Amino acid sequence: MERRQFLRNSAITGAAFAFSGAKGWAKSADAHIDILIDEPKGEISPNIYGQFTEHIGGVIYDGVWVGEKSKIPNRYGIRSELIDKMKQIHVPIIRWPGGCFADSYDWKDGIGPASKRPRRTNFWEGDHDAIRLHEKGPQIFEPNEFGTDEFMRFCRLTQAQPYLAANLRSLPALDLDHWVEYCNSPAGSTTLADVRASGGFPEPFNVRYWGIGNESWGCGGNFTPEEYASEFRRYTTWIPGYGLDLQLIGSGPNDNDIDWTHRFFEQIYSDHAYHNRSFTGWSVHHYASDLSRGRISKGDRKGDALQFDSVDWYELLRQCDLTEQIIQDQWTAMGQYDTDHHVKLVVDEYGPWYREGTELDPTHIFGQQITMRDALATALTLDIFNRHSEKVSIATCAQLINNLNALFLAHEDRFFATPNFHVFAMYAAHQGGEALRTVFSAPDVRYMRDGKSAQFWGLNGSASRKGQVVTLTIVNPDLSKATETQIALGGARIIRADGTVLAAADMHAHNTFDRPNAVTTANLAVAINGEQLSVTLPPASVTKLTVTLG
Length: 550
What we know:
By secondary structure, the protein is of the alpha/beta class. The chain has 2 domains: 9-42 and 436-549, Golgi alpha-mannosidase II (Immunoglobulin-like, Sandwich), CATH 2.60.40; 45-62 and 90-431, Glycosidases (TIM Barrel). It is 23% helix and 26% strand. It contains 11 helices and 24 strands. The chain has helices at 9-12, 80-88, 128-134, 148-158, 173-184, 191-198, 225-236, 258-268, 310-335, 372-387, 419-427; strands at 31-43, 50-52, 74-75, 78-79, 93-96, 161-166, 209-212, 247-250, 279-288, 344-352, 392-397, 408-411, 414-417, 434-441, 445-449, 452-456, 460-466, 469-476, 483-488, 494-502, 521-524, 527-529, 532-537, 541-549.
């Protein structure tokens, strides 16, 4: 494995350290960051920092839900450690129950007494990869122990808003109306409100965010855009509101399928125009995989979560960085029909996706280890959302626990936070802040890919402001060079500057049950030079600066 000896061992375990030209470091040419504090771009929606939970593998069972009778510390059956950690990073919104699981889920199976709920075949039981994994362990069918009531309690315990994905593939539109009624009708007003009350929730859940189907181009019905537009009209033409400002989210394209978006919006905004102010979101999914060096020709479309080299590192980050182009292209396509941009983008599935083999338990379908590479991939994606705060209203990381790009990994009574958790903790300060236009100037990183020269940007990030406090987050993707950086804030008087960094001596570094703090944050020295800041950003790092202005 490649190693870069630029940090002391104590730094890797979280001890405070200062990067200020330590002996033996390789230094790049100077980099400059200009934060234009007089050029705000709009508020960064807290909902950009959402999470996604699906009934797949170990996400719900063995992850979120341990059961009320479990010896594992829990609150109403929900893992206590998970609740506490989620509150630390202020998770604003959680998407549930899928994903593709939602496309075959009947919400009525998950209400009422748990002992009387039906057991069903989970959507993912028919997936070939899932079957291959299950040859190593027991199959997991859906017991429906965790349903709407349990999810709502999970949201309340973590102080997050619920975002429900409705089944458009296999349930009629009336079932969506009834699910809204179950969740939102006033106490005692309807039969479904009485059913909700019998489960311990007399007051309504007040769910505002509703996804109308999921991946309707694939597992959600294999529709054409025109067919989905017709179904979308039918499912959303009348939904009981109960005084709430419902936010309806359409099932948009996979990656940057501009044709799907054009054809859907053309159908919706045709002569038979669709007038529904509750249609406020257009979902986009983008997963990143390392496809470098002939892997496709060998039949292996995805790289490994732990076994990768420097080329794989940069190629994975490059795939994640495509999110910016997707946002720009989709926004342009939508604006040709929705000229006032009433509908915003919702990136409700994103993150790296690797081949199987690093899951903690055979039942954790699509479970994977999370390294420093994933931390940088997640950070640069969050920075993209911040930079496009006027376009993106919601984003949910796929997924919260025991799956792709997870913030947490758990099995039975053992639990730890991954490097991604630390990224979300560092970036939480952006929530609700005013995005500021920020210019990054740094030499590109150069490397060889398949015998040809390739390059990737040298520094990037985002900035926001709340009152007199500016938060700047920076990703340095360079595996070999620390970057001495000058930061200007438009002539503002700087009173104080504090730094936090996430870095490790090994690009493969990750946390485990035995070493849960192998990768964690540490303090970073920041020098104030009049109206500027000076900081040395370590290689392969994520940095947060908190700057107090006078």
